[in-house]
Amino acid sequence: LSNGLTQSLPLKLFYAGPMFRYDRPQKGRQRQFHQVGVELIGSNEPWADVETITFSTDFLKALGLLSKCTLKINTLGDFESREGYKAKLLDFLKPYENDLSEDSKKRLTVNPLRILDSKDPKDREIIKSAPLYASCLNTESLTHYEKVKKGLSDLGVFFEEDPLLVRGLDYYCHTAFVFETQFLGAQSEILGGGRYDGLSRALGGPDLPGIGWAGGIERLLLLTDLQTEQNRSVAVISVGESTDVYAQKLTHDLRLKGLSVDISYAGNVGKRMKRANKIKSRFAILIGEDELREQSLTVKDLDSGDNHRVSPDALVDFFNQHNTHLA
Predict the structure, then answer these.
(1) Across 7-21, 159-173, 284-298, least confident range
(2) What is residue 279's three-state secondary structure?
(3) Is domain 5-78+138-226 in CATH 3.40.47.10, yes or no?
């Protein structure tokens, strides 16, 4: 928020780029991953929360993923409500300290709110009886939350309230939300966010309210059907040394026409075909002396196993007619 950006409030920003994770990698949680997100900075109005959440539902709908997700929301209240609930939760959890998971035992003294987000079965059983956050919300926090829920309902945004949904860091407040899916195993959260009115001040900047969300691109891709339609290559396979030069020229020409083309340089025809299948090429173009002499190439459909004879000039049209994703 430097260079005079605070003079143009509210700011509505988006970003996309690589991130790095300290945690142990697992499915859906790579060491390096990519993230897309939005931030609305400079407004503490409930309608800013509504706009931000609604935009996330529109984003997922545009990707064809909204039907696979459930939007869950909760409120953390303001700082006063948060501190009151933290003390109440701590009093509840202390008698269970020896029964908590190792991670939750550490969180008990550092950040007890994070225990509400634990996936450990023993922790989940204890949390069932935990006091609800709503019991500590002051009037201002309740009013903010009610306006957010009404705004979402008025815009036709379906959501579920989850009283255990929290954001552990102290600068988070009021609205928290997450989109969860049942299609990715333990990594159920695909997009989440919340209001962070204390973040700018915590970083040494001006005291500005803000709300935003972020989603992991790799996790979104795992949920989409786009992977089955991703671009697939054409494998160019030279049957003998006499056709190697022609194979290189053909590869270059097809690439200039926008196709994804792979060519290998060693091994017999069998090994080259094995490579083509391994990298999931859609077609293999086999070039032998007969094909050169007749100017009619053998094109093998690696999905169906069918062979076709196609002239070099007609290759692109052939691939287009077969509605393949090769570019």
Answers:
(1) 159-173
(2) coil
(3) no
Q: Tokens at residue 84, please?
A: 């009151």
Are 125 and 115 in contact by the 8 Å Cβ rule? The answer is no
- Take residue 137 and report the two structure tokens written for it: 């919300």
Pairing of strands 210-216, 234-238: unpaired
Q: What fold characterizes domain 231-321?
A: Rossmann fold (3.40.50)
Per residue in 5-54, pLDDT (tens digit) is 777 889 999 999 998 888 777 665 678 889 999 999 999 999 999 999 99
State yes or no: pLDDT of 238 exceeds 70. yes
Picking from 21, 70, 62, the residue whose alpha carbon sits closest to that of residue 183 is 70
Q: Which residue has the tokens 């993230």?
A: 35
Q: Which residues of 181-204 are buried (b: 16+ CB within 10 A; e: fewer)?
A: beebeebbbbbbbbbbbbbbeeee
**Every domain of the chain and the residues it spans:** 5-78+138-226, 231-321
